[in-house]
Design goal:
The chain is an alpha/beta fold. The chain is built from 16 helices and ten strands. The N and C termini lie far apart (40 Å). The model has no long low-confidence stretch (mean pLDDT 95).
């Protein structure tokens, strides 16, 4: 079989290899999915400016994100239940990112724990924090991230309450999956996935089980996770978290200029322009459509990153041209992981790197750090 050449081909392969409930968890948005779809569609509307007869030699994609070196302006985004796309998924993705030379961000709602990732990596990784009502648990997470030598904390601000994702409700999603007839059938049709899952002990939320109070079984875990997201979360809580953490802080989920300004006032090191992959407020604007105005408003005072809708190296180029100092990808690496494990994550990154490199050259640029809005065509 010819190796996949695009992220779309990896997606098709993942769909064939991952049980439906977990594939759809990764590949769907909230309500009508209008924002989820706009994230991709709005990238396609942006056209690049082709240049010719310019020196295209000695190109470099190397950059920094919050002061840390990156082989290209891409980080792996925090994604929940990654270890349900493939056994030990977070560990495999972290190793692939480390070998590639880009940051890996572990989600609070991961299957593999902070300690699991630390056990298979040599370089520091980033940790994404959800602020729960149980502040002792939050402090415990921060302490564990420090002990694992995580080099940045990514605070997700846009999940105080959960947006409704119809597919997850229809599929009765849980980790580990409930043994209903429907779920058993879905898993039985993916024998390779099942065989890999039988080889690992990691089947539930590794950062929660054994660390949060009053969780004894799947019923109490499900109730705890749905009751712990804090609808009263405020900017004062961000200040408290920054004080407890003491290291580089990135605030994820900024989609409004006023919120961007408030994030700057907290003293955060970076923000991520994001709508949670179209999984929260359906009808919100795409990330890429909001990026330029947020960069114009606060880009001289804070590092601006973005995620949402990136499916190619050209999308990364467009985001950087519009002011992003870095980008985060979630679904592209999840497709690779579900399709081919660690090798698939590496392949997804290489697909993006190659397209970014060639497209940058064809726009007349040799160094990603010099890419700006002049590479965007006026149409």
């Amino acid at each position: 079989m010819t190796a996949p050449l695009t992220i779309a081909e990896l997606k098709k392969l993942a769909q064939r290899r991952v049980p439906k409930m977990f594939f759809q968890y990764a590949d769907s948005g909230s309500w009508t999915e209008s924002t989820y779809n706009a994230n991709e569609a709005d990238f396609a509307k942006i056209k690049l400016r082709q240049r010719v007869l310019v020196d295209m030699s000695d190109r470099s994609l190397e950059t920094t994100m919050v002061g840390q070196k990156a082989a290209m302006p891409v980080a792996l985004a925090p994604t929940g239940l990654t270890g349900m796309q493939h056994a030990d998924g977070e560990m495999l993705a972290a190793r692939a990112a480390e070998e590639f030379g880009i940051p890996f961000t572990l989600s609070t709602m991961s299957i593999c724990s902070i300690e699991d990732i630390a056990s298979v990596t040599k370089q520091p990784f980033w940790f994404q924090l959800y602020v729960m009502k149980d502040r002792d648990f939050v402090l415990n997470l921060i302490g564990r991230a420090k002990a694992a030598k995580c080099s940045a904390l990514v605070l997700t601000a846009d999940l105080q309450i959960l947006g409704q994702r119809h597919n997850d409700i229809r599929n009765g999603l849980s980790a580990p999956p409930k043994f209903t007839a429907k779920n058993v059938w879905q898993m039985a049709t993916r024998p390779a996935w099942c065989m890999e899952m039988l080889k690992t002990k990691r089947h539930s939320f590794g950062n929660i089980i054994g660390h949060a109070k009053d969780i004894s079984d799947m019923t109490t875990l499900s109730h705890w996770t749905h009751s712990q997201f804090d609808p009263k979360l405020s900017w004062s809580d961000v200040a408290w978290i920054k004080e407890q953490w003491g290291g580089p802080l990135i605030i994820k989920g900024i989609l409004d200029v006023e919120d961007a300004k408030a994030a700057v006032d907290t003293g955060a090191d970076a923000i991520i322009v994001s709508n949670h992959g179209g999984r929260q407020l359906d009808g919100a604007p795409s990330s890429i459509s909001m990026l330029p105005r947020i960069v114009d408003a606060v880009g001289d005072r804070i590092e601006v990153h973005m995620d949402g809708g990136i499916r190619s190296g050209q999308d990364v180029l467009k985001a950087v041209a519009l002011g992003a100092k870095g980008t985060f990808i979630g679904r592209p690496f999840l497709y690779g992981l579900g399709a081919m494990g660690k090798e698939g994550v590496s392949l997804a990154l290489e697909i993006i790197r190659k397209e970014l490199d060639i497209s940058m050259a064809l726009c007349g640029k040799r160094d990603i750090k010099t890419v700006d809005r002049t590479v965007i065509a006026e149409v």
